[in-house]
Structure formats: C-alpha cells, structure tokens
Amino acid sequence: MAISIGGQKRGAVSEINVVPLIDILLVLLIIFMVITPHTQTGLDATLPQRADETLPQRTDVVVVQVQADGTLRINRDAVKPEDLQTRLEEIFGKRADRTAFIRGDSPVEFSVVASVIDRMRSAGIVSVGLMTPELDKGR
User: Fold this and answer.
1) Which is the most buried residue in 6, 72, 76, 132, by most CB within 10 A?
2) Angstrom distance (rounded) from CA 139 to CA 129
C-alpha cells in the first residue's frame, strides 16, 4: 500500500498497489498450468474390439420350428404338437440355461405360434426368443 501525503491541495490519498498481487497470481497460474497436467491420471478404458467372424456356433441352442403345414420340429427332429411339452421337459430337465427360440415360417398364423409359446412356457422355459425368416436372410 502506498500513501501520498501533501501535494497540490489534495490532502492524504491512499491507494492499493495491485502490481505485487497480480505478480503472485500469475506465478500461481503458471505453476498450476505446468504441474497439474503431469500429475493427473485418467480412468483405464477398455475399447471394444472387432468381432471375430469365425466364432463357433453354439450347439446347445434349442430351436422349435413351426412349419407352414403345422408340423413342429425341435432342432430338426419332428415332434407331434401333443408331445412338445414332454419333449421340452426332457431336454431342459438338467440344464441351467432355460432359453429356447421359436421360428415360424411366413404363412403360419401367430395364434399357432402363440400356442406353441404357451406350451414352451408350461414346460419350464423361462426365456423364449422369436426368429423370423427375414432375420435369417440378414445373416
């Protein structure tokens, strides 16, 4: 702080000298700009890798197919509609994964597919996935 006394009829004048304050602030700014970026560490990120096109196909997947003529197949094995529930109970008896898929041909009505889904649910299958011919064309 500087005080000026006397002088041209003004009397005592007090004013704050801000130059040392600005110098200190600039030094602190430079210190934080130089030191801070070197001490920061970010989070480890695992980037997704490109999918391998030659993955082996799962052989334990169960697909119930409803064909256009009304016949049913479980993984290419023909099954009568009244035997579907017991056959699925045999397949899923000792499995921990209770997931199956149902594939319906294009001319099959949804009510037929819905009744097959009901039989699958009553056989103890927890998750039923739907497959359509349009999805198979995309593969």
Assistant:
1) 72
2) 17
Which two three-digit tokens encode residue 50? 């490109």
Q: Compute the distance between CA of residue 105 and CA of residue 128 in angstroms, rounded to an integer.
A: 17
* Consecutive H or E run containing 127: strand 127-131
pTM for this structure?
0.53
Q: What is the Cα–Cα distance from 65 to 112, expressed in whole angstroms? A: 11
Q: Which residue has the higher pLDDT, 93 or 8?
A: 93
Class of 63-137 per CATH? Answer: alpha beta
CB-CB contact of 62 with 101 (8 Å) = yes
**Rounded Cα distance, 125 and 71, in Å:** 20
- State pLDDT tens for residues 2-44: 555 655 666 676 788 888 899 999 999 998 888 776 666 677 7
Q: Are 59 and 85 in contact (CB under 8 A)?
A: no
Ranges in the chain annotated CATH 3.30.420.270: 63-137
* Tokens 């110098």 -> residue: 23
CA distance 61 to 128: 11
